[in-house]
Each structure stands twice: as structure tokens, then as C-alpha cells.
Amino acid sequence: MSETRHTRVLIIGSGPAGYTAAVYASRAMLSPILVQGIQPGGQLTITTEVENWPGDTEVQGPDLMVRMQAHAEAMGAEVISDHIQSLDLSKRPFTAHGDSGTTYTADAVILATGAQAKWMGLPSEEKFKGFGVSACATCDGFFYRGREVVVIGGGNTAVEEALFLTNFASKVTLIHRRDSLRAEKILQDRLFKNPKVEILWDHVVEEVLGNEQPLGVTGVRARNVATGAETVVPCDGFFVAIGHAPASELVKDQLELHNGGYVKVKPGTTETSTPGVFAAGDLTDHVYRQAVTSAGMGCMAALDAERWLAGHEG
């Protein structure tokens, strides 16, 4: 049954930025509503060991997000399992429509929708999605116990995925278009020392190969970027780990974006191009993209919203 809910502050998204914003907005007595979105908890829910969250030498990503949600709710935030399908920022109160049929109106909005995995855009990649092609090793790694897999990418995401997959796979081949990785040195050291890992430098994947019946991956065709020579790497699973793109579809025609779709904010703040609308976390951060910086921006967004609302009563 459809209903309309009004709140002083509507928080869209439930990663570290969203939950931290909910904690601070609740402490400011703004009674925020947080709509979790399609992936409650955000990217940390598909991460295993988190070793750079202050206060925890090591914590499981999903556990950390459960604790953050419980904290937000304990402070007084209302956390709703729904997904915002449309958002109107043209006038106040701002209006959002959820998949549940609920309409949310708000005096201020904090956007914390995060980022989503990037895909390569190959027709063969699309064909085998869910049938050997994945963008989440922690989701699907278990299915490749004792089998060979390929990971493509060169940043932290790719190296973390490759290392995680060594827990299951008999062999992990990391393919990277350059001759060096961008990942943190500590992660590179672990990768290079792992006997299950082989690295194919200076290559790009041209095609995912597989069978029709049953549908499944059998390998990838890779091309050397310098010589053009092609190599077929046999594998049962292909993991795409080439980074993430900001989830800014809701606001792409309403807010100023930059750097490939990130929401632009006023330097030193979380203020967007529309007064009363604030953005935090990976949706706006194209530089650091860490859980701790997302949480910090969530705090900033709530404080910015509180101050803005105080100056716009009625």
C-alpha cells in the first residue's frame, strides 16, 4: 500500500557514509530516515577482511556494516529496506519514490549511494555474467574450489580479489594492461609471494570464451598491448576488477557532475549544486575511496545539512 513519509533529512544509501550521516543527524535531533537501497551496507558487504578501519586490526566487512546500522538505529535513525527509483530535486520539499510504493518527502537530502563495479563492456562478458563471469570474488569464489580463474585489473580491488580467490582456486591468473600494479605495496607483496598466482603483464582481455550447453566459461583471449600477439588463458571463472563507477543515475540530470559521473561538491564541504542536497562517500570521492573517508564525509554531510536546515526553517 502506498504512503507518503516526510522527514527533515532523507539519507539515500547505507554504506559507511550513509550510516555515519544517520548517526550525526540523529544526534542533531533531525529524526532522519535512511533508505538502504539495493545493496544494504554497500560495497563493504562484499568484502571480507578489512584491515584499515581504525580501532579494528581486522574486521569482516559485513560485520562492520551490521554494527554501523545498529549504531544508527540506536541513535534514533529509521532505517528502511527500500530502493529509491526516482528523485525530484527541482523544488522543496524534495520528493523520492521507492520501489515499495512509498513516497518520501524531505527538507534536505543526503546522497550516499556509493559506487558500483565497472564492467568491460564486451558482448562475451555480458553473455557469461552469472555463468562464470563475476565482479565479486567474495560472492562467487566458493564456486571455484580447485579450479582455475582469471582476474583482470591492477588496483587494490583486483589484487584483493586475486588474493581472496587463492583460498579456493588451484590457480589465479591476474591480467593487467601495464607492466606494474597500482595497488598498495603491502597488497602487491602478498600477491607476488603467493605460489598460486601468475601475472600476465601488458595484456588486455579481448573475449571471454565458453561453452553453450551448459553455458559456462572455458577461458579468455588476451592480447599483448605492445606486440598484438594473442594468448588464450584457460579458466573456469573470470573476475572483472577494474574499479567502480559512482552510482549517480538518480541525479545525473539534476546535479552538477564531474570526473566521469561523480557528484561535484563545494570544496571543503558536502554541498552539491542544489541547496539542501548534500553528497558523501564514493558517490563524490574520486580520489580516496576508502571506508574511513566515506564515514568522515557522512559526518560532514549531516553537519552541513543541520546548519543548512537551521538557516532555512519553514
From TrEMBL:
UniProt superkingdom: Bacteria
Keywords: Disulfide bond, FAD, Flavoprotein, NADP, Oxidoreductase, Redox-active center
Entry keyword Flavoprotein: yes
Co-factor binding comment: Binds 1 FAD per subunit.
Classification via Gene3D superfamilies: FAD/NAD(P)-binding domain
GO MF entries: thioredoxin-disulfide reductase (NADPH) activity
Statement: the UniProt record of this protein carries the keyword Disulfide bond: yes
Cofactor requirements of the protein: FAD
Pfam families: Pyr_redox_2 (PF07992)
Domain FAD/NAD(P)-binding: 8-298
EC identifiers of the protein: 1.8.1.9
Recorded catalytic activity of this chain's protein: [thioredoxin]-dithiol + NADP(+) = [thioredoxin]-disulfide + NADPH + H(+)
Quaternary structure (record): Homodimer.
Family: Belongs to the class-II pyridine nucleotide-disulfide oxidoreductase family.
The name this protein goes by in its record: Thioredoxin reductase
UniProt organism field: Albidovulum marisflavi
Native organism taxonomy: Bacteria, Pseudomonadati, Pseudomonadota, Alphaproteobacteria, Rhodobacterales
Gene: trxB
